[in-house]
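Exercise 3.2. Students should predict the tertiary structure of the chain below and write it as structure tokens, then compare their answer with the key that follows.

Predict this chain's 3D structure.
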Amino acid sequence: MLRHIYRHIVRAPGKSLLIFAVALVFTFTMGVLQNEISNIRAEIDRLYEETVVAVELRLEGDFGRTSRVLGDFVPTAVIRDILSLDVTGDMYLEGTGVAFVVSSADEPLNYSDLDILVGVDELRRLTADVDGFVGREDFFNMHVEFADSFGDVDFAFATSHNVPIIISRELAQKRGLSSGDNAYIVHYQPVLFREGKWSVATATVIGVHDGGGLHSTVRGGAVVPLDAMWDMFGDFVGFRVARFAIDSSLNRELETIREDIDFYLQWFRYPWREDLAADMWDQELRFGVAPLAQHVALLRMLLPIMVGISLVIGAALAVLSMLQNAKNAAIMRVLGMPKLKTQISLWVGQVVLCVGGGAVGLLFTVVIGLRSGFAVVLLPYFVGAVVGTVVGVFMVTNRSPLEMLQVRE
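Answer key:
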């Protein structure tokens, strides 16, 4: 039988080569199409995984009602609610409050001459460029002249120790303080629904800064650990800068996250709710993903069309090829070959050409580095060819040898 199959293939090299080439072209085309879809999806996944989406909370509009207490700052309660969403990645906060930074807790104080305090979680946020960080808005860093035996590592707060404080040059001159001095932070602790009280926290001046890295309105103040500010002012800490990155693993859920953030900004217990807003910088992600997603949708719509065409062409070409092989089938029957053996011989010869062409097409996709699924690429044309060959074989062999000999090739 193998000899008959081989002779059947080589007897008409032009027709065999056509069947082989069509299978190769369709398989390779399907491979290229599927590979393009895979590449675009991979690029979309990369954008979702690597793009940093930053969010900044801010007050907008008329600040008249809140400026008497907090200034134009985002309140701590809002920050805590946002953190409770568990969607934040890297965060940058600049807490702000007012107090007296003095050398003696007993010295007379002029209550119209308060000093500004700025709280940050890490001093390096102000003194160094942090790669990939959502960051502060100024493009220069703070320079600190530390006192002897003090450094960055000393910018940490525990309730049982003095507050490490870094004062500005202006504040040092104004209060007569210098690096290494002991100091006091005299601050007002507000209490809801009743009169607050003045409290005193002991501090150590670990350095003097030049104001770099801070907003112009607070450069003349002092920098303290954010934990110390929370310890002194509690929920009455105001945040001039509240900026954070969305956890990149949640970038596909940005619309839901935006709605959750807006919900907390509009929550009724904040009397200044209409002044709170959130800016989400997701343009890079939206403008990068949207055209790619549209391209994928177009290709995914084109893929089933190509599958259908592949099936139809494979089946039609197989039927046409079998009809043109009627004379060969008749000769095999006249020479005494059983009907079933004739059918198998014709069917296998056609399938061998289709499988061979498809395999070479699939090999080409692999050689040039395309990633393609075997089933999607090779199966459609192969199924069409198999079905068409079966139909064509029965159409040819279900007639008598004399009838088959009357068909011209």
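Discussion points: Confidence is low (pLDDT under 50) at residues 62-71. Residues 2-46+289-405 form one domain.
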